[in-house]
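User: Please predict the structure of the protein below. I'd like the answer in structure-token form so I can feed it into my own downstream comparison script.

Assistant: Understood. Taking the following sequence of 397 residues as input:
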Amino acid sequence: MRFALYHHVGSGNKGCEALVDSTGAMLARCFPDTDIALYSQHPEEDAGSVYNDVSSIVPVSPDVDGLIRPIDKVYLKLLRMKSAHDADMAYFAKYFRNLPIDERVFLSIGGDTYCYGENAFMHAFNAELKRRGRKTVLWGCSLDESSFTVNNAADLRTYDAIFARESGTFTLLREKGFTKNVFLHPDPAFTLPAKELPLPDGFAVGNTIGINASPLVFKYENGNQKGVGMHAYEHLIESILRDTDCSVLLIPHVFWSFSDDRSILRQLYEKYSASGRVLMLDRAYSARELKGFISRCRVFIGARTHSTIAAYSSCVPTLVLGYSVKSVNIALDLFGKTDGFVVPVDALEDADGLTRAFERMLQTEQLHRQILREHVPAYVKKAGEAAQTLRDFLTES
């Protein structure tokens, strides 16, 4: 069987890398003699990643800078199109029509790509795959109400199968009329193994708080409370240093130049490193290696979804600074509620909001860990069974 993983934006985002790594391993186990190609928008980022089950990397990098924003009315008139989306589709369609495509089954691994507006690049790629008679699968996705625009809904209906990664998305799909070949399996990255490297000097085994921060999350702050996210992290670290004997390890999970977690974490490190108890991972470790560090933390506070998945799947008590439907729905599936597990960034009204949630979590730390130990093994098993569900679907279709 020849598979392709596509809508991959590059391994500078370690969540994306985790999805490629875990999905590839899952397919290799379930489909003997399988061949897997990775269609990457940033293949230069993937060159340094170790994908044991990916046999080739196919660059998919049209000159998107050639598109002028906003496309002027004259251009649209000449193309006889009504919208910028239609013009973009025409631009990308020409690119994809000339792209060699050999694989039979394409898994779209961009999990949450339908949560951020319309993506003509993705729509055009899907249209070309269907024109060539390929099977397409939306793999490990999250969707919310905003995902179902006219263009997105039309594109979603072209998939042969959809795998939702949480119950909220699965239920929403059903409500929107997607009832055939829709399956529920947790995020594939729950199955990712951890790779343990030597711990940094100053890491207190059993007593280190892992913290991930992201510049992305600050874009979702309450409009009346700009800057509250950064102040919340500062207040949290000051509280840990003042009221506990814990060390703090700052853990980036995305290393893109336009959205680099280190841009935030370095500011925090520089402010508090003199304490001798605040450490930082400053280079781009692999997703497995980052999970190895996260798995040895006492508790974890994270913004990036896949950093928190690394913690959850390692049974590390986790507090999420949430900015999307993903964090809410995963917490609901694991714990049955979000209170005490997710702090929505747009609900932060003061600098100590995150600290208060962290202090409450410490009070129930053992219960939190016990819940994870009871539920995570079955959750990971269910995630790993997605490939068998895919196999059954492909056999029947």
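That's the full token string. The chain has two domains: 2-192+381-396, 208-377.
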